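Record pair follows.
FIRST:
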Amino acid sequence: MFIVTAKEMYDMDRLAMQEFGLEGKLLMENAGRAVAFKVMEQTSRNEQIGILAGAGNNGGDGFVIARTLLDHGYQVEVLQVVANEKITGDAYDHKVIYEKCGGKVTLYSGKSIQMLKEADVLIDAMIGIGMNGEVREPFATLISLINEQEAYVISVDIPSGVPADEGEDSINAVQADYTVIIGAPKQSAFLPNTASFYGEWDVVSIGLPTFMFHRLTNKTVWQLDNVEKTLPKRELFDHKGNHGKGLIIGGCKEMPGALSMSVQAALKSGAGLITGASSSPVIQMIAGNSVEAMYIPLMDTDGYLNNHSKVSFAIYDAAAIGMGLGRKKITQDFVAHVMNTATCPIIIDGDGLYHLSHLLPDLNARAYSTVITPHPGEMAMLLGVTIREVLQKPFQYAKDFAQTYSVYVVLKGRYTIITAPDGVQRLNPTGNAGLSKGGSGDVLTGIMLAMVMQKQSLLDALCNACFIHGMSADLLVQDQHSEHDLLASDVINGITRVYRAILSSG
């Protein structure tokens, strides 16, 4: 599934018409009919359906929806919310066809709002993806009126008032119960300040060639079928050396559990051999939790690792650092040492990211891949911006950082965005609010370490790790836990169930 900006969607429509001869009227017909059939799944013929049609493609889709529903015996009334002269081109043609088929169009006025009050279902086809800036009249008033009604609200492509792209803050928009997205979801379907306006949503195809999406956008949603295709299978004569030797560095006297959870998650996720590295007191506290792991003690000062610890990376295929490490100056020096000497890919998480903010120039100097795993607060710290700014433009900020420093960025959130150094972006849809607890990130880092050591591309590995992490939480919440009581250790145990589900269906 692709993710598009407004410009990318407009470019696809333009290319479909100019290069492939797909007429705009046909694309509008395909869109409207596809939406109408989704509407039929959500409604019944004894319900009164009111359709609010604006100008442009969104309004044109509304007329096709109305005609299709009318033809299938539904009770339909169209409220045209713009002047007649603004209905032009393909939208005008479909309005005419609708009227010739016996459909009625009422022009919006103060008296016509009775339709909003009487409708059981309201279909919002007013503005579309061309929304920028503040909502103007009459749309601002209509949005308020729609949101006041008890009717079930279905938006066409995007709730009116919601921008397609990231970057907007103050939103005045239709609160849809359900949105039928046309072609591909827009960025705003995944942003904290806009996603809720969509309600539940589905995507319908309108006949645009798939390769055009590959040509015009590098943003996709990583789904179950992607995992099934890319997750490496075990071979008959595999041994532990085939599945990676990983090193996990972290822990301090106040936070020994972070290292323990990462070690357990890496082992559970399929790593061949895992070694935990920390101070002797931390190892003594956690070694019994993961008897399958090996441990090496490192030098510490008052329980915090220092740069006198010389780690040899020669035998390791990948490493992770930062979980529960602490934020002392001595640990910063140690992180710098690891970054400059590691001869394998490294994942930097937790307190490692805090120290990374002082070591950014060292990133481009690394000869091996680097993965960072910030939540929005950590991303804001690294960028020198506010958390609010990161939440408004997560796609852009993640891409800018990945390309500037030649790193993989896993920007964690309800929809985690994984960005490669070349700007390719994938979004993970799995997971729930049960993951919003301490330790969840440590578990994800362990899964990532295991994944990057398997026979798959680094980008695929990171995406699969995020999917497995979120899917474990989703399956556990379905029938064993609630989002309130779910613990990071539960997610580790749930990995077994995820693998069984994926491998049995793949």
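SECOND:
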Amino acid sequence: MTAQRHTELLDTYLLNVFCLLLAERNVSRVALKLNQSQPTVSVALRRLRGILGDPLLVREKSGMVPTERALKLLPHARAALAQIDSMLSQPDTFDPATTRQPFRIGSPDYLAPVYMSSVCARVRREAPDAQVTVHALGPDFDFERSLAEGDLDVVIGNWPAPPDRMHMSILLEDEIVCLVAADHPLAAGGMTLADYRQAVHVVPLPYSMTQRGVIDGVLASERLERDERLVVQSFNLAPYVLPGTDLVFTTSRHFAAFYAKLLPLAIVPAPLPFPSMRFYQLWHERNHQSQAHRWLRRLLGDCGRELSQIRPPA
């Protein structure tokens, strides 16, 4: 079959099915995403196999896995779809006051709650009919794929080494402090490095299995091991276990200040040379030029700058 004939047979629908099949590796899930029946997607897979002359997906014990040729073709298919979208798209106009567009933000729970509160208040003022979904992140969540496939518009993170395949801008830099119970022996007098080493600590489960956080990175560089006596499933739970205990929680100042107002807690300067905790937003090239996404990214940046001007009480 000639290259021209391949081009005639491969339409945008089949390209989209191909990309989704390699991402999901499951016909049923692709059918659900496309709001189609499973047999319809199975027919599309058979057509793709015939056109491309390759099984594309083969069955293993763990499920369906892509062939080597399929993986080589995937970036070309994605690039072709992006080019077609760009060619067919109408002039990009956006009015936040009238839009009903949904916006999807991936955010970790170690971000200070006051930041997202500020974001939501600003969206309600500027785009009252827009829908905002805040998606929780976790070690098993593939945020890069979600950005590439359009499931998320923006991801907020603070990993020391953000993926270089994404666009990035800084939202906020925040000091790292220690949060303890108000009646903790170190609450009034401060904490030395020896105190920190001897203390018992509460830590959340890691957010990424591949990236070490700022705090863990500094501890490793200083060859300092802390007694992580209590591990909790989220950052938001950690402050609630501190009252009445001798536990220490190391976190950002704005996060600590929020919970210090709600609970009998005290903020103590960290006795280690932690750098600022830097929060940034990440987005994919696919919506880099979109006026709607530019508005969202500008709003997120403005809220970060406003928060950075506020010095939380010690």
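COMMENT: Residues 83 and 233 are 42 Å apart (CA to CA).
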